[in-house]
Amino acid sequence: MNNPSLSISVVIPAYNEEKRLPNTLRATIEYLKASPHEWEILVVNDGSHDKTADIVREYAIQDKQVKLLEYGKNHGKGYAVRYGMTHATGDIQVFMDADNSTSIDHIEKFLPYTQKGFDVVIGSRDVDGADISVHQPKYKELLGDLGNLWIQLWAVPGIKDTQAGFKMFTKKASQNVFPYLTIDRWGFDVEALAVARMKGYSISEQPITWINDPNSKVAASAYVEVLKEVVQVRINILRGVYGRAA
Asked: What is the pLDDT confidence band of residue 219, given thresholds at 50, 70 and 90?
């Protein structure tokens, strides 16, 4: 990875992830230790009832760069990501999923785009070069395709995949986007991108290798929830909820 002076923050939201989180943490730590960068991993425990927090504490004993953030009851993935990103300190701030569906080594592919001047680089399953090693069930893929048309209409025209869980922000962009966000659950990705664009930050959509986890916690009802929240994002922009546009 170029520019070794950069520091990297990785935010991982986690809700009852005692089974999937250990492998993701091991792979992420191993990758970052081999990089030339200063780094931190912030695991946000979103009100888990299992051993998620204990697992993170064990890793934190071994590596001081691993940190546990928690706040009590479950609030939703959007809240957890927002909490983590507003506590991150790195020059480059990334959030990724606890199931490692998109692996940490995508950082190496994304960083050059920040050096070209992009403020936000997002992973996409729907641009040329994407590799979907394990697909979602057909009905989820269809719902996702239909939902994206709605999302582009209301919030972020031109972005083909808002929901892949691997996104990179420069520190400046993160600090000017995440504190303003309002959506606590599945529609937060759309809100983050819409606010980033409204504030004048440039977004690059890049292909990822993505492996669907059959134990995914995203229910079909979440797609309907996102469609409602997308409309709310547009209303919020018109009302000036997110502050001033660029």
From this structure: low
State the burial class of residue 112 (Cβ atoms within 10 Å of its Cβ: 0-12, 13-18, 19+).
middle
pTM, two decimal places: 0.91
How many domains does the structure of the chain reveal? 1
CATH of the domain at 73: 3.90.550.10
Q: Give one DSSP letter per residue of 168-203, joined into a string.
A: EEEHHHHHHHGGG----STTHHHHHHHHHHHTT--E
| 46 assigned to some structural domain | yes
Contact assessment for residue 134 and residue 84, using Cβ atoms and an 8 Å cutoff:
no
- What CA–CA distance (Å, rounded) separates 92 from 170? 5
CA–CA dist 233, 122 (Å, integer): 19
Eight-state DSSP code of residue 229: H
Q: Report yes or no on 1 lying in a domain.
A: no
Q: What is the pLDDT of residue 234?
A: 94
Task: List, in sequence order, every residue forming a beta bridge with 124; answer none if it has no partner.
Answer: 207
Residue 230 lies in a domain: yes
